[in-house]
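Weekly modeling sync, notes
Attendees: S.R. (lead), two postdocs, one rotation student

Agenda item 3: backlog of single-chain predictions. S.R. asked that every request posted to the team notebook include the full sequence so nobody has to chase files. The rotation student volunteered to paste the first one in as an example of the format we agreed on. Action items at the bottom.

Example entry:
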Amino acid sequence: MQLKKRLIPMFITSILASSVFATEVQIATKPIATNTTLSAPPQQPLQQKAPRIQIAILLDTSNSMDGLIDQARNQLWQMVDEFSKARKDGKPPVLEVAVFEYGNDNLSSKSGHIRQVTGLTRELDRVSEALFALTTNGGSEYCGYAIQTAVQDLQWSNQQGDLRAIFIAGNEPFTQGPIAYTEAIKLAKEKDINVSTIFAGQYQKGISSGWQNGAVLAGGNYMSIDHNQQIAHIQAPQDQKIAELNSKLNQTYIPYGAEGEASAQRQIEQDRKSREISVGLLAKRAKSKASTVYNNSQWDLVDAIDSGKVSMDDLDSEALPAPMAAMSPKEQETFIEEKKDERKKIKAEIAELAKERDKYVAAEKQKQTKSETKTMSDVLTDSIRVQSGEKAFSFQ
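Predicted structure, as returned to the notebook:
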């Protein structure tokens, strides 16, 4: 534990993101005010039939892991962008991400010092919010216990061909704790969940402390990273325009239900947190928001109706934002269609600018000395590409 005194800025942002996913958000939410019980139409909503990539990220939040967490915050949207390129049978997948923390003395010993921060969710702003809220303290790191908790507590897909994956990151021996990692991995394999391990430290040390063996048994990948490597966001000429379009994009969202307004504010807050780090990071986030994997059907009427999650006939006026409550049904339909069309146009503009930005950033990186060390985003996206290929996913 002496290792863990000074390691804090790095392990979705921009895992995530990300975190990658059409189940309900598995965190407590207030019910939507309706005059009838919201239920699925006779046929299953389209997103439930779509291929899914489900990722649970288990982060060690003991004293030395500040750098790991910081990498996650800084690279979430970069990872999400990678997942947006995935296709299966020509269809983009639903991306769902969950976050757990383990090894923090602030967490109850009765739960093995483990906490589910978010369940598997498509609402990626919740994942971003969760990562920014994490802090480190002390720690007893029980990897087997953490894996078992993720396997048992999350709502994993049972659809054949979906990708289900756990990524656990930390730097203490993999063998610690009351639950043998071999037993936890056995449970994961029974549900066809791949478990990959990310050792925050030297590659050989991760091997000697059991991290490689855990991945081998689970059919996943063993990787090591420099969790203290600072993430640099290259600023590009397109960033300011992308930021302006991002603000306009937010205006196309129509919050509904008891959680609508709070979720809309969460979206804006995560924009702010990204921009505080770098306008370059905000540009990466905006690019992800313009992709197919960024979906807010839990609280946005445009996404909800487009995906078949709700029908306007099911919603009481109390569930609608004030401007819509006074509209006639025809006016409401027109209003939603206008927002949908506006969003489509803005997303297309962001996507075009993002292509130009990517070319600029790639050219700038060519001028820099290439680092031989890998970060969370590097190893996670590399591993997901391999695992996705085994499930017949391809990347554009």
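Discussion: group reviewed the output briefly. Confidence is low (pLDDT under 50) at residues 1-48.
Action items: rotation student to repeat for the remaining queue; S.R. to check formatting next week.
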